[in-house]
Amino acid sequence: MATTTTENGGGGTSGSKDYKKPTAAALIGAIQLGIGYAVGNLTSKPDRDVLMQDFYMVESVFLPSEGSNMTPAHHFPDFRLKTYAPLAFRYFRELFGIKADDYLYSICNEPLIELSNPGASSSWFYLTSDDEFIIKTVQHKEAEFLQKLLPGYYMNLNQNPRTLLPKFYGLYCIQCAGFNTRLVVMNNVLPRALQMHYKYDLKGSTYQRHASCKERAKFSPTFKDLDFQEMLEGLHFDGDTYSALMKTLQRDCRVLESFKIMDYSLLLGVHVLDKKCLDRGARADSKRLNGQRVLYSTALESIQGEGDGKVTEPVADDDTMGGIPAKHKDEKLLIFLGIIDILQSYRFIKKVEHSWKALVHDGDTVSVHRPSFYADRFLKFMGGTVFKKIHPVRGASSKRKRSSIHAMRSRKTLRSTWRIVITVVTPVRLWPWKTLSPLSIPKATQTLYTLSTCEE
């Protein structure tokens, strides 16, 4: 039987443990079945405005394997599903144009794809087969923090849906075999259809920001800040794109700073444009190009201002997959990016961690830092080291035109000026009745005479 309760931050059962799954298949099956039931059950509720109490509501339902009057039978172990702030997340999905049927089709129709985790956390990642959504397991404190963050997150999305911040579509908890698995559904930043030749997790810090040997040995490793500085000389954008990108990053960082959030990263994917690879990727993902369901989901859409007209809108036959055009030396690139890992607040434990690391290393180089300093360092690194503006050569486009149109006039001016120099240096007869030396001509008269001759 389904029940609706209010929890402060979505805390779990006392003494429960996180990140323990009976089997991978059982967990994935419970996730798909549970989300399918929760979203399907929500469609029967009428639309209305989101109220403050909606951000703290938790719906709980028990799904036994033999089924019940309210739930379907299944072949997984018995489990309980908790759905956090269901009405608020329904609003978020609608804001990004996600229909309930499409959401269910993406998550429940095909098996989820398990991804590797390059970070230091113990989170697991699952990708939907249509490349739209990422399902990530989170710790209890992260789930609690996200629920407390929802009112401010709601306000920010209302003001600006075009953002590089994570787009959260649902928060759930699976209780199975005595263990809790909390998970959040988010947007996918890096499309699988295009090969990411380089991937980076960038924080703007330098302390221990090299990819490990284990990570480097992977087929598609994720590098870090120091690796970027050693491998690339910066990614170059045209002036308008650079300005739009940095403006978006600045706005997003100020939002995170206001929530006292730090230790976030910029996930950066670099695709080197190659005709052969591009054609293969475009065919593999033609479904998404022609029928994209989520609004503002691509990197290019996320940095565009409303109606600014400065950055080209992606079109259906555009093979860029919503990537941002860039250059590195003579290579043409597509850039995919998004801010990730924003559920780290500057709590007491983080302050202790920063103080301890600062005793051994330079405090300004470590990742953990107070939110204002972290945001400034992050923006400085992105705007100066990672992203750079292409400076056009001034007047290069019109130089040849000016030289061709005014060639005769320039030569005439040169001859006139040469005559003036000769006239000033040698004694000349300027008037029929008097011969003057150069020293006898007043300086003002020389200047005016030279200008009038050049204009002729």
TrEMBL record:
Residues 23-386 form the PIPK domain. SUPFAM superfamilies: SAICAR synthase-like (SSF56104). GO terms for biological process: phosphatidylinositol phosphate biosynthetic process. The keyword Lipid metabolism does not apply. Gene3D superfamilies: 2-Layer Sandwich, Phosphatidylinositol Phosphate Kinase II Beta. It is found in: Cytoplasm. InterPro entries: PInositol-4-P-4/5-kinase_C_sf, PInositol-4-P-4/5-kinase_core, PInositol-4-P-5-kinase_N, PInositol-4/5-P-5/4-kinase. Its main location: cytoplasm. This is PIPK domain-containing protein.
